[in-house]
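Q: Please design a sequence for this.
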């Protein structure tokens, strides 16, 4: 354990060449308690990090190393910004050295290994560690995260949907029809990762707008599993993701029908009370229309609650930066909790405008 002003947290990053990796580096390079000690990449072994990411010149003086060269066992915590399957292949050896793990992929998000194997097309190699891992959505699992050894960092879409719906179904509440919830979600192109792919080429993604994963998306079972835990029973969810022609940002529009016995509920007050003490969740004034640019490069998530014509339909608008609160910022938020730091340490960045 550490605290503000105490010894720094020795940090390793596995697979730091993608967008979540560079976001981790950006955030941790400004974190007062972070000591970046190792970052791995087989392909870029020996390359200075600042050569790949010039925004980090003068901030990060590490070079990429192969996993064999990097002394990850000496770290206090290791972040995995890697493809699915990598973290679980190294988790056991790191845990034996008392290293904490925060995985930004899906290895420790789904507790049901059969569901994981169906969606990610690989066997889960450490189900015992999975069973002890904690789903790292701070606003829902704060106490468990603080004492966890392994964190499954939530997906970007699930973060918006779960925080947008939690006040309506948490703690035994029965305010909406949980058998039919619609999540209509949009993400910037960086959500697809930093890789060569035709669908994310400028000529393909620019000046275009499309749905994808309509027949099924990997984040659907993750959202459903967590909603079931919140609601204490099955939840019917229709989830449709879309790709929008912007680099970063996420906007989720959630539709839920109010139950007859809950029509007198003040939903604006309900959301304001639920998130009153949450540093990174901003419930906007009634009638607000949040924009993705209002959270760009910040760890903030903004929510607006609408009830058109005072009827029985709720429309909940949720925005976040998919690379920060939707990925790397949330991972740092988890780390802060795990090491006894104030949750906002190193994360109090104002969003970038324009």
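A: Design:
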């Amino acid at each position: 354990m550490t605290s503000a002003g105490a010894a720094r947290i020795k940090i390793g990053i596995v697979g730091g060449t993608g967008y979540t990796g560079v976001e981790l580096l950006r955030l941790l390079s400004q974190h007062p308690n972070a000591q970046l000690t190792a970052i791995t990449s087989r392909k870029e072994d020996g390359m200075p990090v600042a050569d790949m990411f010039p925004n980090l010149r003068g901030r990060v003086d590490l070079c990429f190393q192969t996993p064999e060269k990097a002394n990850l066992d000496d770290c206090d915590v290791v972040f995995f910004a890697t493809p699915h399957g990598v973290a679980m292949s190294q988790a056991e050896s790191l845990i034996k050295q008392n290293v904490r793990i925060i995985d930004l992929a899906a290895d420790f998000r789904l507790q049901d290994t059969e569901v994981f194997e169906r969606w990610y097309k690989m066997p889960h190699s450490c189900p015992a560690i999975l069973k002890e891992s904690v789903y790292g959505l701070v606003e829902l699992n704060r106490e468990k995260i603080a004492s966890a050894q392994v964190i499954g960092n939530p997906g970007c879409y699930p973060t918006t949907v779960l925080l947008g719906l939690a006040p309506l179904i948490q703690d035994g509440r029965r305010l909406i029809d949980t058998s039919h919830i619609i999540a209509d979600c949009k993400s910037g192109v960086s959500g697809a990762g930093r890789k060569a792919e035709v669908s994310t080429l400028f000529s393909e993604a620019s000046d275009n707008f499309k749905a994808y994963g309509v027949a099924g998306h990997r984040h659907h079972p993750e959202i459903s599993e967590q909603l079931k835990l919140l609601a204490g029973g099955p939840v019917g969810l229709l989830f449709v993701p879309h790709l929008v022609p912007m680099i970063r940002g996420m906007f989720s529009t959630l539709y839920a029908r109010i139950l007859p016995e809950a029509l007198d509920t003040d939903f604006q007050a309900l959301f304001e009370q639920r998130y009153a003490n949450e540093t990174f969740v901003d419930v906007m004034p009634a009638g607000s229309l949040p924009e993705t640019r209002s959270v760009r490069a910040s760890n903030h998530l903004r929510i607006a609650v609408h009830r058109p014509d005072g009827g029985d339909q709720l429309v909940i608008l949720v925005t976040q930066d998919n690379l920060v609160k939707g990925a790397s910022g949330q991972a740092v938020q988890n780390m802060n909790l795990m090491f006894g730091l104030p949750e906002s340490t190193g994360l109090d960045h104002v969003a970038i405008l324009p």
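Q: Thanks. Anything notable?
A: DSSP finds eleven helices and 13 strands in the chain. The radius of gyration is 20 Å.
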